[in-house]
Amino acid sequence: MDFKDLNLSTPLLNAIDELGYTTPTTIQSKAFSVIMSGRDVCGIAQTGTGKTVAYLLPCLRLWKFSKDRFPQVLIVVPTRELVKQVTDEIEKLTKYMSVVTVGVFGGVNMRPQMMEVENGCDIVVATPGRLLDLVLEGSLKLKAIKRLVIDEVDELFNLGFRTQINNILDRMPERRQNLLFSATLTPEVEELMRAYFNNPERVEAAPAGTPVANIEQTLYEVPNFNTKVNLLELLLSNDETMNKVLVFAATKKLADDLYDCMAERFPDEVGVIHSNKAQNQRFNAIKRFRDGNYRFIIATDLVARGIDISEVTHVMNFDVPEEPESYVHRIGRTGRADKKGISITFMTEKERPLMEAVEQLMNYKVPVVALPEDLEISDVLTPDEIPKVRMRETLVVAPKITDSGGAFHEKLAKNKKVNVKVSHKDKMRAKYGKPKSRGSKK
Ligand code: AMP
């Protein structure tokens, strides 16, 4: 199939041509006609499948110029990085159109964004909180919205945006088309569609959990954190094909610790991004990575979702993620849109059950490769790895005296005497034939 086979306009075809896209990806060809038909859509697609272009193309094809410039398309995404990525993609696709796009997100001054939307625009890309603020302020009018796209719904829910999403949906014009994209179809996502969507048609890029086939996956069994650091260093030093490497770390702290170790060994070649870093710093780090100034970048799962970097040569899982779906997301960053990619995972014994969950989800066993011979195995453990020595609280209970079987000789007669305690009441009864009570005393 060719982009020309889709019913696109010349300005769009020219822009696609300039972007160098030759053939539509699976989700792009599948979603196009369904969205064009006006039906609600539920797209199951991970990042890397070309899903953004999949919903943008029909939305742009259906867009009509209007003088009043109230937005016709609203795209809700979980992170500011995604706002940036989607607006960038729209800018490129609308190079020969007069579409005005505004991206809004929290964490920055709201005033400039208010002015931008008040000046009039055709498409708004937004994170949920800021979007609601702008609507409540009266700056953003939703009355002309014809198409609502909720992208990465599963992630929006993970981030706790459920109430905001409901709130936004409640404020939408009745007559509109709803498009939803999610990597996985969770019960929560289904619930949302039941409540707000009109008989959505499902389009899938690949069954959820199936990694893109053109990713070569390998697994190293590594004893501890410090050996993982050594291994990462060694691989980066020995393999020159690793020139655009995305390293995933589970937590912000881990990402920072790893960055400190790597920055010493590879100064000026490494960047770090996570949600505690200032937004500017994040954008800059991504830019340097994209431009090839940074050879590798260390990221946490969340921020990595939104970054759009093509030609990532390798994804390194410095650890196995807690959520098996995150693994699929992570490795989806390499081998994007039909380019071959490599994913390498470092796993400690403790992480084995997590890896098993990943393999079960993918229905694929990741081959284990032997550690390089020149790898320095460290036996220095991090505070987290040192086994906690806990004293077991055992209650010392005195042994129960049981019948020990008696002595081996006969007791002497005097010792045979048994103390029989007779109560005062019984003694009185024996003496007087009846209980001696206070009443009888009287
Ligand atoms: P996404 O899945 O939307 O995150 O997009 C993945 C990447 O693939 C982005 O960098 C897009 O620019 C790129 N892309 C989207 N569609 C195509 C296509 N048909 N051919 C080549 N690259 C594409």
Question: How do the helices and strands line up, and which of them pair or pack?
Answer:
Blueprint: H1 10-19, H2 26-36, E1 41-44, H3 51-62, E2 73-76, H4 80-93, E3 101-104, H5 111-118, E4 123-126, H6 128-137, E5 147-150, H7 153-158, H8 162-170, E6 177-182, H9 187-196, E7 201-204, E8 215-221, H10 225-238, E9 245-248, H11 252-265, E10 270-273, H12 279-290, E11 296-299, H13 301-306, E12 314-317, H14 324-331, E13 341-347, H15 352-362, E14 368-369, H16 424-432, H17 438-441
Parallel strand pairs: 1-6, 1-7, 2-4, 2-5, 3-4, 5-6, 8-13, 8-14, 9-11, 9-12, 10-11, 12-13
Adenosine monophosphate binds next to helix 3.
Descriptive notes:
- The mean pLDDT is 87.
- The protein has a seven-stranded parallel β-sheet, with helices on both faces.
- The longest helix has 14 residues, at 80-93.
- It is extended.
- By secondary structure, it is of the alpha/beta class.
- The protein has two domains: 3-204, Rossmann fold (3-Layer(aba) Sandwich); 215-362, P-loop containing nucleotide triphosphate hydrolases (Rossmann fold, 3-Layer(aba) Sandwich).
- Helix 2 (26-36) runs parallel beside helix 3 and helix 3 packs across helix 4.
- The chain has 17 helices and 14 strands.
- The N and C termini lie far apart (118 Å).
- Adenosine monophosphate (AMP) binds at residues 21, 24-25, 28, 47-53, 308, 310, 336-337.
